Amino acid sequence: MEGRSFVSSPPLWAHLGAAPIGALTPTPVYRRTEEDEAGWRRDVIALVLIQFFCFFLFCFKFDAMAKQYDVLFRLLLLGDSGVGKTCLLCRFTDNEFHPSHISTIGVDFKMKTLMIDGIKVRIQIWDTAGQERYQTITKQYYRRAQGIFLVYDITSERSFQHIMKWASDVEEYAPEKVQKILVGNKSDEEQKRQVATEQGNKLAKAYGMDFYETSAFTNHNIKESFTRLAELVLQANKKDLEVLRTSINDDLNIAALEEEEGMYDNHGDSQKACWC
Ligand SMILES: Nc1nc2c(ncn2[C@@H]2O[C@H](COP(=O)(O)OP(=O)(O)OP(=O)(O)O)[C@@H](O)[C@H]2O)c(=O)[nH]1
C-alpha cells in the first residue's frame, strides 16, 4: 500500500505515519506522500506569516497609542458648590452647557489634548464637589495635581471670600510646585454681579496668580483659561520635561487604558456625569 493517498482528508493519526493499534486492521498503514509534505510546509509557512502579521499589527497599534500625546498633566477645579466648575469643564471638553445644577458627588474627570509649543499635552481635568461634606474625598486629589483652578462666581460675594479658604487648602495639601489660576465664572450675568473685576484682579495679584473672568454659558475665556494653566504647568516642568516624559509613562499608559476601557470615563468617584 506504499504511496497510497486518500481522496478525502486522511485521519489525524495518518499524518504520524502509522495508525493507533486498535485501528490498524483492516485499515492500511498510511505513509506521507510528497504532496502531504508540501502541504505541511505550506501550513507552517502560513502560520509563521500570520504570527508575524499579528506581531507587526500589535507593534503598530502600541506605537500609535504611545504617540497620542507627549506629556500628561492633572488639573483640578476647586471652588464653592454652584460656581460652575462642572459647566466650565463640559464647555471646554465637549462644548456643552446645561442650565440645571446637579451637585457633583466626590470627583469626576475628563480629558483633552492641547498642542503647546509643539508638545502634545494631554490634560486630565478633575472636577471636584464644592460641598463641604465631600472635602475629605476631594482633598486626596490635591496631592497629584500639577495645576489648580480656583473658581468663584462673580454673582456670589460669598464664593469669592471662600477663595482664601480654598487657597489655604491648596497650600496645605497640594505639591509646592503646583500652578494656580483664579477664575471668576458667570461673567455673562453682569446684572447680578457682586464681585468687581478689579477685586478679582487684586486677589489674583496678591496670590501671584493669573486671573480670568469666564462664562461657561457664552464660552467666554474658556479655552484661554484652560490653555493658560496648561502652559504654566508646562513651563514649570519644562526643565524636567524629559524626566517627566519617562516618569509619567506609567500614568500615561494607565490613563490611556482608563480611557480605552472607559474605567473612569466621566465618572471618577462621582455620580454626576458631565451632562451640562
Ligand atoms: N449664567 C451662567 N450660569 C452658569 C455658568 N456656569 C454655570 N452656571 C450655572 O450654575 C449652576 C451650577 O453649575 P455647576 O457647574 O453644576 O456648579 P459646580 O461648581 O460644579 O457645583 P458642584 O458640583 O455642586 O460643586 C448651574 O445651574 C449652571 O447652569 C455661567 O457661566 N453662566
UniProtKB/TrEMBL annotation:
It holds the Pfam family Ras. It is a lipid-anchor. Its main location: membrane. This is Ras-related protein Rab-15. The lineage of its organism: Eukaryota, Metazoa, Chordata, Craniata, Vertebrata. It catalyses: GTP + H2O = GDP + phosphate + H(+). The keyword Cell membrane applies. GO terms for molecular function: G protein activity; GTP binding; metal ion binding. Its cofactor is Mg(2+). One of its GO terms (cellular component) is plasma membrane.
